[in-house]
Write a structure and sequence with these properties.
It holds the Pfam family 4HBT_2. By secondary structure, the chain is α+β, with helices and mostly antiparallel strands. Helices cover 34% and strands 15% of the residues. The N terminus is likely disordered.
Amino acid sequence: MASALGAKALTRILLPTSVAAAGYGATRPATKEWVKNFVTGPGKYSRIALLFLLLLNWKSLPGAWTIRIWRAMIYHLFVRPRPRLPPSCLFHYSITTSYASLVETDYNLHKSNSTYFADLDVSRTHLVSHLLRPGLKAIAENLSTGCVLDPRTNKPVNGKMGVMLGSVFASFRKEIKPMEKFEMWSRILSWDRKWFYIATHFVQPTRPASWDWQGRRWGPTRKPILAEKGEQGWEKRIFATCVSKYVFKLGRLTVNPAVVVEQSGFLPEGRPGGWTGGESGTGTPVELNGETVFPAAPGENGEQGGEEWRWQHVEKMRLKGMEFAEHFAALDALHNDWDAGEEGALGHFWIG
């Protein structure tokens, strides 16, 4: 990963330069003549129809996925100022808006199930880049920060940082119609010693009760729809729910996700054994004096304000998420079920 200083400088130079170049090009006589011929020349209706079709399906065009991913990373990691978020924001949702393009529509006239995963990539990138930016930066600059030590030499590990996707599970509830808007609500579900779990809900546009930080530099640019609870609660607004798991790498070494979260400033002090030692990350609760102690979080059970966010609150949410994540993780054992057709196969079919 490039240094934050170099990327910021590059962005500040390239972005204004590109805008200025585009503006200058639009004023050139040759450009004006081309636009005029495009709109009024022979075959104009076909060209305009094709342009309109491309605009409706821009997110599905070649290269669009790469632009969406890199735009999210550059924006959150290098351009937008990150507010100081308290530890209580760790499990809050990151909301990303999208729509079902015509190209994504299958023969059932709804968003194809396979296209959900491309949108998931974008939503997860926004969440991780926004929430864990300080931790990712600390890992990338590990030789100076020393937050990840080689267990053999007890010296900072030297290597390239990477965030790798391990697997994705998707449960579909109802269809998304062509050109219908939807939102992806992604949040941290849990983590263990190796895997970092993220839950994502595809939902109808919905307004949260509050925003963690509503500065002028970023935030909602629309008036979100506030859903009303009915007999089904919020479930009636859900299109699909997905769980993804990431692994953080520094060279060939797997980084405990707790290190990234802690370096991002979200893990309160005081946990017995720390967040990377003892039982941390194993999915089992921490025992205090023979019983598990989890105080109510601020605002929980109808309370307003009051008690500060402590390490027990984080552990309570992590373990709650592990109740779902551990079943998802158990699917890894299915890899061992493949027998390479020892008892035969149906056939080999073309085209795939």
